[in-house]
């Protein structure tokens, strides 16, 4: 296939999925959703074929103009767009994508800021999927998004399931928008700053960190932690979404 004007496979970070069990798993997970699907980074169309095969309305986005043209020819029932997923709005209810590993963070940040979609299924690096799903402790990005989204680990993909084979395994990360957010949307910017202050704060315990982040007195902090069932020895990565929301409502505001 001719080289894209955007670069070759290495520049585009393309590792094409051909692992049959993962393709079946993607189909099963998509069956749990409703509405039109936006696929980002459709590549050679392995996932696109699974989505189209479910009888769903599919819009596939591909940066490589040659692959986009071939997909239009091979899958006439799909709407194929030659576009950049870093710029195109995520404006359909379901978002699916085999994300170029080096673009995972910027795509996730964009995705978690847009308000139209309801369900997302992303194939990312295994360790990234684990971290975002909170396995072994949450990250700051996950804590900042958790009042509005639920993250889950939906499967591991062996490196040999891609062509060419990357150096690490992949992971299926499922993200669902909460029907009822734990924090009001209008408070999101301030809440983000609160989480950042707690994750980066210094102190001899979480109570001291919270005092520094909120300027609340020690008694108020200890009372809020008790109500949220947060141990003083906890670290920010140990807190769950309801605990973050409770501390925000009592202290962060």
Key attributes of the depicted protein:
39% helix; RNA-binding; two-stranded antiparallel sheet; 253 residues; Rossmann fold; 23S rRNA (Adenine-N6)-dimethyltransferase; alpha/beta; 9 strands; 11 helices; S-adenosyl-L-methionine; transferase; methyltransferase
Q: Average pLDDT value?
A: 93
Structural class: alpha/beta
Largest sheet report = 7 strands, mixed
Low-confidence stretches: 6-12
CATH class membership of the largest domain = Alpha Beta
Pattern of helices and strands = HEHEHEHEEHEHHEEEHHHH
Architecture of the largest domain in CATH?
Answer: 3-Layer(aba) Sandwich
Shape: elongated
Q: What is the share of helical residues?
A: 25-40%
Binding site for S-adenosyl-L-methionine: 15, 17, 41, 62, 84, 98
Organism: Nocardioides exalbidus
Keywords: Methyltransferase, RNA-binding, S-adenosyl-L-methionine, Transferase
Pfam family, one: RrnaAD
């Amino acid at each position: 296939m001719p080289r894209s004007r955007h670069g070759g496979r290495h520049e585009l970070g393309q590792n094409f999925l051909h692992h049959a069990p993962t393709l079946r798993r993607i189909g099963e997970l998509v069956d749990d959703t409703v509405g039109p699907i936006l696929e980002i980074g459709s590549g050679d169309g392995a996932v696109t074929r699974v989505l189209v095969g479910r009888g769903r309305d599919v819009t596939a986005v591909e940066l490589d103009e040659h692959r986009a043209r071939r997909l239009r020819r091979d899958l006439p029932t799909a709407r194929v767009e030659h576009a950049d997923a870093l710029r195109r709005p995520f404006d359909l209810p379901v978002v699916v994508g085999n994300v170029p590993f080096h673009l995972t963070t910027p795509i996730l940040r964009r995705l978690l800021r847009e308000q139209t979609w309801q369900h997302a299924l992303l194939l990312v690096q295994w360790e990234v999927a684990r971290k975002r799903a909170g396995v072994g402790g949450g990250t700051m990005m996950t804590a900042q998004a958790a009042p509005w989204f639920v993250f889950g680990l939906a499967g591991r993909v062996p490196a040999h399931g891609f062509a060419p084979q990357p150096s690490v395994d992949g992971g299926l990360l499922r993200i669902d928008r909460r029907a009822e957010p734990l924090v009001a949307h209008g408070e999101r910017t301030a809440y983000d700053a609160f989480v950042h202050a707690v994750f980066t704060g210094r102190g001899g315990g979480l109570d001291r960190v919270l005092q520094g982040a909120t300027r609340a007195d020690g008694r108020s902090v200890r009372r809020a932690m008790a109500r949220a069932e947060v141990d003083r020895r906890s670290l920010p990565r140990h807190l769950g979404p309801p605990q973050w929301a409770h501390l925000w409502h009592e202290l962060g505001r």
